## 1
Amino acid sequence: VSRRLPREFYSRAAEQVAPDLLGRIIAARVPTGVLRARLVEVEAYGPADPASHSFGGKTRRNASMFGPPGHLYVYLSYGVHHCMNLVTGPEGEGSAVLLRAAEPLDGLDEMRLRRGGAADRDLCRGPGRLAQALGVDLSRDGADVVSGEEVWIEDGPGIPPGAVARTPRVGVTRGAGDLWRFVEAGSSWLSRPAP
DNA sequence: TCCCCGATTAACT
DNA sequence: GTTAATCGGGGAG
């Protein structure tokens, strides 16, 4: 029986939480049931990080990033796609982990509908696609994944440290030197292969 | 107020 | 490989 990760899991630094999320299950409740996928790719965005949305301080868009850990930070990317983060660290710090890719597990029919009939391999391959497949949009911004009923993270075996690969974050220009993208090495569900 | 840019994706050539 | 779609933030004017 899967159980949810506790608040303390998220209250650590983003670069510690990120690799620990690999192998865990993200679950989302939609009208037809519960969708599930196994996380294989995430990125950490810490405090004093020029690549982070929180870098310039609190705004209306990123407000939930400065809230308590264990909540969602959802934003609109390029005015088109939704991207989903888990808020980490102490409240007020403004750090989070971006969920970038996952292996679809439950509710694939529903995911295909939401993804416009995309191939299974492309259902959750990329942050915008993952959010769309799971039905996560701005209405979920700030949702509590520890006690809420919309989106949550289920405990699981995780993956051994030796199976985690670190790379620079995708699409980041400022702060490009930090190896804060964490993936399950060799997974065929990644948005891009790890070098 | 205007202009540029970005943690992206799908549909092109 | 290129580009349109389209929105919020931030700096220039």
## 2
Amino acid sequence: MVGENAQNALIAKLSHFGQLKVEDVDLLVALCAKEESFAPRTNISTEGEPPRSDFVLTSGMACRYRLMPNGTRQLLTFLIPGDFCDLRSFLLRSMDHSIGTILETRIAAIGRQTVTHLFAHHPRIAAALRWSAMQEEAMLRERIVSLGRRNAHGRVAHLLCELVWRQMANGSSDNHAIRLPLTQTDLADALGLTSVHVNRVLQEFRRDRLITLARQRLKLLDVPKLQGIAEFNRDYLHLDDTPIEVSRYLGQLENDELSARKEL
Amino acid sequence: MVGENAQNALIAKLSHFGQLKVEDVDLLVALCAKEESFAPRTNISTEGEPPRSDFVLTSGMACRYRLMPNGTRQLLTFLIPGDFCDLRSFLLRSMDHSIGTILETRIAAIGRQTVTHLFAHHPRIAAALRWSAMQEEAMLRERIVSLGRRNAHGRVAHLLCELVWRQMANGSSDNHAIRLPLTQTDLADALGLTSVHVNRVLQEFRRDRLITLARQRLKLLDVPKLQGIAEFNRDYLHLDDTPIEVSRYLGQLENDELSARKEL
DNA sequence: CGATCTGTTGATATCCTTCAATTTTGGTGG
DNA sequence: CCACCAAAATTGAAGGATATCAACAGATCG
């Protein structure tokens, strides 16, 4: 059951880039077959160590983070089911940040050869994975904007919106409500704030009937107002469909491959 | 002359990933042949518009940035000669940020087919370009760390170190001195500060003999102390050589290609 | 050689942090 | 089911880092 949801998350997410063919879906589902499990609050990957192979996060939640010399922590991104992590990282000698779990989390490792094969012979999937990497990069940029130019209210509202929109995109949000297993300290470490201040902001949001948040359930009550506070514009998530040019290009590649096969 | 420097920048930068073969260098030099020029403080690429094709920045300086509804600006990254920009961006319908010049800037556009060809038939160059993209992503993460967890002194010191190290890597820094054509407002917009505050920090740095900065020349006088203030660790720039495994992999690919050619 | 952009300075305001205590929550074993 | 414990959330008071505002000086450039 969990496995099924997990696959759905990956498929649901990549479908925002473009329609996948049945064989693509089958392939992606097969990729997620052998899972590995990590306890809550443990490291999947550690700063300074060689990168692990690519993986898909199939259930749970994790984050990329850095520890500072004085012990403070900066969360960089959150990883949710359907996220395909660290494409290309094998090019690096060592990780420049860590990846740690929030909850019990399952990942499906994707071998280097598999990735290479996907990129060489499955252009539609390859393009979708590249798109997914672009999306993660865009989220990094958006976080910079948040930290640089939004006040605490804006930052909190923006992060909540982002998490909800991402979970809508991977099919695990229901009416702007999601599971949010983060502590206020986690939020603070992601937003460059203190947990005390995050607490006060959240309480204001609750008082103003913008959200409810209790027992790891977040619900956005007043989406327009929150978007206003956050200056949230979903465009950076690039959830719209593929540019026509790319569709044509992929169709072309497919034809090439078909004719190549006939020749064999 | 400028062109030569420009090529050197690209070659110098990519050489930090791994030794390039003569034919790779020739190919990369040829890529930078047809340049296009942009006046200072103009846009190369604009938020909301379709992405332009990939390009190499061959001379000058530019930045990625976002404009906020209230008119404030957040600079995301600086682009310097040798930077290869927007691999994969053709997958997106529209830009989520703008790219603007600081100085008069030249770029060499790389057509989509060229990029595709490089990735298909020049694995060493392809790997180097992917590495370069990873490096840019790592710089985004590092900026998040700066904005989230470093105070103004740390942020300024870190950015100055980053710019100097990057220019060392592309061969345009001499003894920790670089050309820095940024206004204090530019720095402030990159660091999530006000120009007034950046000014005061810079003056302190000057008073403490940590830097000199005048007439667009920056020199780091006390590198260890600056690194300490910045908590700067160059590891995230991944300037060391390639993991052995990757070298082997590339060597393998090369052999495959050679034997394939023989068969023809 | 004047106009304009950039850098500099000082006074005041504010957002957010820090510190420290208290309450609530959630989990665990008896 | 309750007692207990640790972690998380909450609250208040005080301090500090950075912003804001406004004025002026200095640089740069046609």
